[in-house]
Design goal:
Elements lengths: L2 E10 L2 E11 L4 E6 L5 H8 L7 E6 L2 E2 L5 H7 E4 L11 H6 L14 H14 L14 H14 L4 E5 L7 H14 L2 E5 L3 H7 L2 E6 L2 E6 L1 H4 L2 H8 L1 E7 L6 E8 L1 H7 L1
Helix pairs in contact: 4-5
The protein binds adenosine-5'-triphosphate.
The site of adenosine-5'-triphosphate (ATP) has 12 residues, from helix 1.
């Protein structure tokens, strides 16, 4: 699926929090949205699945304004992994992942063997197959997050919207989750705080500063020490992994400007 935001201006609580954001995500591309707390990442993601009406501008999914699409059509085509997981008291992991199949069924639809095949594969990919029979409410935060990813995969959507999907995960699962997402080949927009993950797994990144897209392009071109200082107020150096040859950011702490601002 191709996603476009056209001059998208969004408000929360009567205040403009995203201003004239224009971004195109090509089919199969992984776009990272980066920015400080409160810069508008989640707000943009909400608009991308029609949960928030723009003040002005549009979100288009394969050329169609999302505001004109039915909830069911959006649910069939877009999978969302939000920051606050839904309360699922009593469901097992497998049952929770099966919920991802709901938009594909008719009104009285039952689970088909295909549904369970898709659920099994999704649980394998997200690393929760061994937890299939465990109640979701007794999982750790990271296990729950992986369950949500499995559900998003089971949905077989054409667009994945992930809001800080790695925030409860241990180091190995952070890499694994982003690797899995990148390998799915589905158009993905992912709000991230970890710049190194963006460098490693995003095809392009959009950097937000107080609701405005201030940089857009390939992460290695965009994530320079100057940008990191300007947007995050953190001093950084770019280094190259001596073995893999990949670019990394070495974060050295807040800049003098940030310390002044915070005192
Ligand atoms: N429900 C709401 N009502 C009023 N203001 C809101 C609401 N949700 C978010 N905001 C405000 O909108 C702005 C953008 O918030 P948003 O959640 O999009 O930021 P974010 O970049 O995702 O932040 P974080 O990194 O902290 O998750 C912030 O100033 C926030 O306080």
């Amino acid at each position: 699926m191709r996603l476009e935001t056209l001059d998208l201006t969004l408000g929360r609580g009567g205040r403009e929090v995203v201003t004239a954001a224009s971004v195109v995500v090509e089919p199969g591309e992984v776009l990272g949205i980066l920015g400080a707390n409160g810069s508008g990442k989640s707000t943009i993601l909400r608009a991308c699945f029609g949960a928030l009406r723009p003040v002005s501008g549009q979100v288009r999914l394969d050329g169609t304004d999302v505001a004109t699409m039915s909830r069911r059509e959006i649910a069939r085509r877009v999978a969302v992994m939000a920051q606050e997981p839904p309360d699922e008291f009593g469901l097992t992991v497998a049952e929770s992942v099966l919920l991802g199949r709901t938009p594909h069924r008719g009104v009285l639809g039952r689970d088909s063997p295909k549904d369970w095949r898709v659920v099994g594969r999704a649980m394998e990919l997200a690393g929760v197959a061994a937890l299939a029979d465990r109640p979701v409410h007794r999982l750790s935060g990271g296990e729950r997050q992986r369950t949500l990813l499995a559900r998003a995969i089971a949905q077989e959507a054409e667009l994945l919207l992930l809001d800080e999907p790695t925030n409860h995960l241990d180091v190995s699962y952070r890499f694994e989750l982003m690797h899995t997402v990148a390998e799915l080949g589905i158009t993905t927009v992912v709000a991230l705080h970890e710049l190194d993950l963006a460098l490693a797994y995003c095809d392009r990144v959009a950097v937000l500063d107080r609701g405005r897209v201030v940089a857009l392009g390939e992460p290695a071109d965009i994530l320079t020490p100057a940008l990191v200082r300007e947007v995050f107020g953190v001093e950084a150096s770019r280094i190259t992994d001596p073995e893999a040859g990949t670019p990394h950011l070495l974060l050295r702490g807040t800049s003098a400007r940030t310390r002044e601002r915070n005192t």
